[in-house]
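Revision sheet: structure tokens.
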Amino acid sequence: MKFIKVVFYILMLVSISLSETKAQVLEPPYKREFLIGLNFNTNAGFIGGLNGKFSRLKKNNIYETFGVEIVNVKHPKEAKYASSNGSPYVQQKKNYLFPVRLQYGRTIILFHKAPEEGVQVDAVFSGGLTLGILKPYTIEYDYDSYTAIEPYDPEKHTNTNKILGTGGIFSGFDQMKIVPGLNVKAGISFEFGSFTSNVSGLEIGTLIEAYPQKMIILDDINHSYQNKSVFTSLYVTIFYGRRK
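Predicted:
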């Protein structure tokens, strides 16, 4: 937690200070850029989510950015168990959390790359509105005379031997809730590519996200699990796009 905060503040200070300097004022390499990316972060599983970002030249080496991210946030204590028929499910899970982040920010070119080779290094920071989608985690439960797919309630579904598996990622959307929040992130981007019109690379950074209430992912009726209203994470985004 302390490490993430330290990294975040350092990146923010670097970005702000670099935006004020007049050093390395070169001809901007492009005026507009559109990127799509695959996100990996410490609050998700193997793949965190997807994002897209549009950038346009503001002045000199500074770009105005508009972005959107859709990710999956998991509780750190989530654990999968085998149901009675062998299908995996997560015990005590109440909701999926899918943050949709709308972000506005700045990209500052720190180091230009040669026209046909090298690496461009950017400082990136942004923030904005988060729409936190809480979707019920559903299971298939055996009631002896019939089976039902319904939101998992550990107080109701006490016989784990009758849990047949999950209800699927697409069930429960009719009962989802949206909780608004705020997010801010800062990072460093490394852009590669031998052509000036195409770009690929990766972005490394940290993110803080806050909601006005605890986001219930695991059932904490017995205070065994702590759900949070503030989330911090480290992330890596692999991206590809075009510029002109």
